[in-house]
Design goal:
The chain is of the alpha/beta class. Helix content is 37%, strand content 24%. The protein has one domain: Transcription Regulator spoIIAA, CATH 3.30.750.
Length: 122
Amino acid sequence: MLVTAHGELDACNAAQFTEYVHCCAAQCRRLILDLSGVEFFGTAGFSALHMISARCADADVSWTVVPSRAVSRVLQICDPDHLLPTVESVAETVAVAPADPWEQRRLLQLVSQPCEGFGEQA
């Protein structure tokens, strides 16, 4: 499954991003986070990636991140041991990962504006 984010990933939207990715990870066995369009990446975004990493490990989901320059800059400082799985492009991830005939392939895109009713309790 491919999740694409554009714009800013910071304290204002990192929790929504994490929740959305967790929902996606529950529906697949392989997850690609395309952050190549992220122009600003705060430390809350880095924390989100660590939470996503833990959730994927628990669910036995293989995952990778395609970082933008902004994301790479933060990862160089906060992940010097390269523990988070990164690749240069979505094409690289798809090329090296074996095809999974059981996985439904969909393109999902994170929208940073809140949707009506999202997260509201009934």
